[in-house]
Design a protein that fits this description.
Elements: H1 21-24, E1 26-33, E2 45-50, E3 55-60, E4 70-77, E5 81-83, E6 90-95, E7 101-105, E8 112-116, H2 123-135, E9 144-145
Antiparallel strand pairs: 1-2, 1-8, 1-9, 2-3, 3-4, 4-5, 5-6, 6-7, 7-8
Organism: Primorskyibacter sedentarius
Keywords: Lipoprotein
Domain Lipocalin/cytosolic fatty-acid binding: 84-145
Length: 146
Amino acid sequence: MPQVSYRDSSVAISSSTRFDPQRFAGTWTRLASFNPEYDGAACKEIRFTPMLDGRMAVAGCQPSPGRAAGTVLYTVAPFGRLEAEGAEPIWILWVAEDFGTAVLGTPSGSFGWILNRGDGIRPDRFRAARELLDFNGYDTARLRRH
């Protein structure tokens, strides 16, 4: 079955140079996504924990479609790119200066999330995250708020 894409692959995509594993660490709430398989309370929170060996443990809802909930170890590549064996790389496309909101996606466009530290988000912050997805070629008309 062909992979679904939520972005125009002819548009350049970039990851964040601001990414810092220590500041990114902690629990995030998934506020919006493109993927219907992530609907429901079972995929509400995701926890990022930097490891001493340079990898990042990702627990809870997994950003790789088809992966079960649990913990996956990702290698942290430069510029906020997370890579795990057998999974598509996840890129941190944007993180707010205060590390309170983040946008994750894949170069293929098979995945995209808006994450926040908690359920509440200011409308202008959500709009900025949505515009970032649009800038990276995502079809934001298909974005689902949770």
